[in-house]
Amino acid sequence: MIPVVVRNIVTEAQGVVRVVLGSTDGAALPDFEAGAHIDVHLPGGLIRQYSLCRMQAEAQYYEIAVLKDPQSRGGSAAIHQLAIGHSLFISPPKNHFSLVKTKRNSLLVAGGIGVTPMLPMAQQLEKMGLPFEFHYCAKLPETAAFSAALEKSSFATKMHFHYSQVAGSGRMDVVNVLSCHSNDSELYVCGPAEFINYVLLQAKMLGWPEERLHREFFSAPIVDEAMSENTAFKVKIHSTGEMFDVEADQSIFEVLDNNGVFLAVSCESGVCGTCQTGVIDGIPDHRDVFLTDTEHAQGKLVMPCCSRSRTPVLELDL
């Protein structure tokens, strides 16, 4: 864990604050590439993941931007209660949403606070001289974090703003934009779960290959409980042969933790990838949004924090 101090807090839009985190001694913080996030250890024992929203201008600072979510499980509310001078611990940067190393065009599509990982992506692509197009969707300019800065950025000519509640602007024509880039681009999308799923669905219907679709969820989509009824099963530990019962109202992680089997977990909703575990035998019942459709179909990985088993026994590579 890295100790940091809140150096500044700036209101970037309605309900959105940008928090500047600095090293405690002025030393450089670890380098990162666009798309990276950090785990932030908040008061009360909460651990939440937030995208680093700007490439480092000075090596001793990181910046995150957080929307205060009325349905928050406590993370965003805790961030909005921080003050300059507060001390925190963070993880080194992790990156599950990095730019593909290619000279192919990049299509960046952000919905609301999903702009946070996109801004450093645009900065990095511009610095590297690579082609890209950036579409930013929000309700109003005053709810769109960083919109003023993006309008004046060095890549302003590549920006396209879509404000659903502004006359003359309106919602993004997703199908038209995706159609124009289906043969020559990598797609990166971030925002609310329903927004991401809609964009990905349209891309797949237009023939975009899975390997060119890149996304990062901040929260898992709402699950239709009627479509995902839980049943009991057993989980087997490959290294020891131990078998544990997972009841319908328990997660795999809870059972492992209760039986002394350590597994790093953070989001507990299948978003962050922290608990990703290999599958030796059995068929996972995937409930995460971290793995791709291809990885789900292969069944070689599972997120024990939220996913279950379609077979009586699920053997894990632990």
TrEMBL record:
Residues 1-100 form the FAD-binding FR-type domain. One of its GO terms (molecular function) is oxidoreductase activity. InterPro entries: 2Fe-2S_ferredoxin-like_sf, 2Fe-2S_ferredoxin-type, 2Fe2S_fd_BS, Beta-grasp_dom_sf, FAD-bd_FR_type, FNR_nucleotide-bd, MRET, Riboflavin_synthase-like_b-brl. Residues 233-318 form the 2Fe-2S ferredoxin-type domain. It is an enzyme of class 1 (oxidoreductase). The keyword Iron applies. PROSITE patterns: 2FE2S_FER_1 (PS00197), 2FE2S_FER_2 (PS51085), FAD_FR (PS51384). Keywords: 2Fe-2S, Flavoprotein, Iron, Iron-sulfur, Metal-binding, Oxidoreductase. This is PDR/VanB family oxidoreductase. It comes from Marinomonas primoryensis.
